[in-house]
Specification:
single chain, alpha/beta, Rossmann fold, Fumarase C, Chain B, domain 1, 4 domains, 7-stranded parallel β-sheet, 27 helices, 18 strands, 48% helix, globular
């Protein structure tokens, strides 16, 4: 990078007549973008933590990328999704690179399942790994692509189905990786990815990889990412949930089944199978089936606090699983001549053993223990109740500059909720206003005649109101529900009465549904949680967002319940200190799907009139952008007839 570029400051880049205005023919000066860039620049120079709320349309990506590049430091940029990660690397970085004399040293890293394992691919040539015509077809695609790719990233193969069984058998997941013992280690795509990252100044990751790294960084084998001194967290409102997942533990019957299957497959492929090992694996599988079957048949999530009573009654079944895992790794240690194939299998046996022991006997009061059943899967989970102290210890005390940014991080214009939940009370804050004119672009409508959402009659009235709205908007809408059951019920009741194309979350992959929505005139998409954020449909195709209820987290959920109790025990008021702020941020995210550019215009409809009838509703209004607001249908009609 040239010395003149290094000396450039944010104001020179983002000012009315700055560098960006000369680079980009359609560049519009955005005061908020410059304000954010200067705040990020100061944080990087002065080495302090910063939280920035930057409304949609601010241009926040460049507002943090440019100061990061100019800082001269190694900066990790973490995004909420792989799509945003790829946009940064393949769109924003090349745009900036055009205007720097020296190459920008930027790398991106994803989780292991995104990369091809060359050794598995070569083994598949001579081993019976593939089943059926679809897997063989996908395998040929992957085989022909492998000599051409520099990254091994599956996103390069556009023709490969999202859920490809062949890819699952050939990816670089840790479960069967022998690391430096692998014959392909020097040519491994993971090795090459890590080499590029070690040579880079800017490393672009996603939150899942970042927190997987933080979770293991203090262990003997160290972290996944190279050392860094500054971190930028985009979509920072997701951090508490993602951190809770990776700082906790999980063990399931599927993990045991997969482990048993992999040991059987490797033992046959590598010619060390024995009758005795087969008997041990059968014993492990049978013991696990009996043990996990003891946790009931009820679908969903439920808290579990009865470990001691469970062990008194079912200690034998539990010990059978532990003993079977111990026997398995003992057998694997005795195998001669296949050491590199044993390393990942032995590690998995020990990890399963340890996680099961910690879940049953760890009894850490800082964690909430719970069980989830999904179909045939039984998942034993432990989640930290409060991630703030873990984040302080593992992140904020170790990295001198962490910049957290999101379009939705304040509650009633206050950063206190985010500071408390994330464990960074000393962070400096900046709130950057949106560039949109919400008063003219968006109308927020809350019908008053609907009953309370907790009333049995609510669904019938809600469906009538949804039909009335969709006929006025001619479809072109998201109908977002707070639960899967409500989503399916609304879709089922609306479908016979509406002539527009109706799409339903779960009937196709998310990206396919979005593409179908974008390209289908007058389409209506019924969806829930994963469509409340990170979805971008600018233009008239999305002209309405309908939300059925205020998105309060289900209080009976074991993690939510534990966090409510923690707030209460620490002297707080859970409803106002935790539940309302969390719901306000989620509502902001849902409504944020509608206005994505200065030319967008549309209706926001909330069918839950508690926002106007309960005192706490004001917190939601104070947290939302300055939408034009009405409770009258005639104003909704007028808005669309302008």
């Amino acid at each position: 990078m040239s010395s003149s570029a290094k000396s450039a400051k944010a104001r020179k880049f983002f000012g009315p007549h700055g560098t960006l205005s000369k680079w980009h023919p359609n560049y519009e000066y955005r005061p908020g973008q410059m304000q954010m860039a200067e705040a990020v620049e100061r944080a990087l120079e002065q080495k302090h933590h910063l939280i920035v709320e930057a409304g949609t349309g601010t241009g926040k990506t460049l507002a943090y990328l440019v100061p990061a590049i100019l800082s001269g430091r190694r900066v990790v940029v973490s995004t909420g999704t792989k799509n945003l990660q790829e946009q940064l690397f393949y769109k924003d970085v090349p745009f900036l690179q055009q205007h720097f004399a020296q190459p920008l040293k930027v790398a991106y890293m994803k989780g292991r399942a995104n990369y091809l394992c060359r050794q598995k691919l070569y083994d598949a040539e001579k081993e019976l790994l593939l089943d059926g015509i679809e897997e063989i077809t996908d395998y040929k695609l992957i085989r022909d692509w492998e000599p051409l790719t520099e990254t091994g990233d599956r996103s390069e193969i556009r023709e490969l189905p999202e859920h490809s069984n062949a890819w699952n058998k050939l990816d670089a997941k840790r479960e069967l990786c022998s690391g430096q013992k692998c014959p392909q280690f020097e040519r491994c795509f993971l090795t090459l990815m890590h080499q590029r990252a070690h040579e880079a100044d800017i490393i672009i990751v996603n939150h899942h990889l970042l927190f997987a790294d933080l979770a293991v960084r203090e262990e003997d084998f160290g972290g996944i990412l190279p050392d860094y001194t500054a971190l930028i967290l985009d979509e920072a409102h997701e951090v508490e949930d993602v951190a809770g997942t990776y700082f906790g533990l999980s063990v399931s019957n599927y993990q045991v089944q997969d482990f048993k299957r992999d040991v059987l497959a490797v033992s046959r492929n590598k010619k060390f199978a024995t009758d005795e090992l087969d008997r041990v694996l059968i014993r492990v599988g049978d013991a696990a089936e009996r043990f996990f079957g003891l946790f009931g048949e009820m679908e969903g999530r439920s808290g579990f606090t009865g470990q001691q009573a469970f062990l008194r009654e079912h200690g034998e079944e539990y010990q059978d699983v532990l003993h079977g895992l111990e026997l398995t790794w003992t057998h694997l240690e005795l195998v001669k001549g296949a050491a590199e194939d044993m390393i990942p299998l032995q590690r998995r046996a020990r990890e399963l053993h340890q996680n099961l022991y910690l879940w049953m006997e760890g009894n850490d009061p800082a964690f909430v223990y719970w069980v989830e059943r999904r179909g045939r899967g039984v998942f034993l989970q432990a989640t930290p109740i409060d991630v703030s102290s873990l984040l302080a210890h593992k992140l904020f005390d170790k990295v001198d500059t962490v910049v957290m940014t999101s379009a939705t991080i304040t509650v009633a214009d206050s950063f206190e909720y985010a500071k408390t939940r994330l464990g960074v009370p000393e962070a400096r804050t900046v709130q950057v206003p949106s560039q949109f004119d919400y008063q003219s672009q968006a109308l927020l409508y809350v019908p008053q005649h609907l009953p309370d959402p907790r009333h049995a009659a609510f669904t019938g009235y809600a469906v009538e109101e949804i039909l009335r709205i969709l006929r006025l908007t001619e479809g072109r809408a998201f109908v977002l529900s707070t639960s899967y059951a409500a989503m399916r019920q609304m879709h089922e009741l609306v479908s016979p009465a509406l002539e527009y194309p109706l799409l339903l979350q779960g009937t196709a992959p998310k990206h396919a549904l979005l593409e179908q929505f974008r390209t289908t005139p007058n389409a209506v998409l019924f969806a829930t949680s994963s469509f409340w954020q990170g979805v971008d449909v600018p233009g008239d195709q999305l002209s309405c967002v309908i939300i059925d209820k205020l998105p309060f987290a289900v209080p009976s959920d074991p993690v939510v319940d534990a966090r409510i109790r923690m707030v209460r025990e620490s002297g707080g008021t859970p409803f106002f200190d935790y539940q309302i702020p969390q719901a306000a941020i989620t509502l902001k995210q849902g409504f944020g799907r509608l206005i994505r550019s200065r030319s967008d215009r549309g209706l926001l409809a909330l069918l839950d009139n508690r926002i106007t009838k309960q005192r706490y509703g004001q917190v939601f209004f104070d947290s939302l952008p300055d939408y034009r607001f009405t409770i009258h249908w005639n104003e909704v009609e007028s808005f669309f007839h302008v």
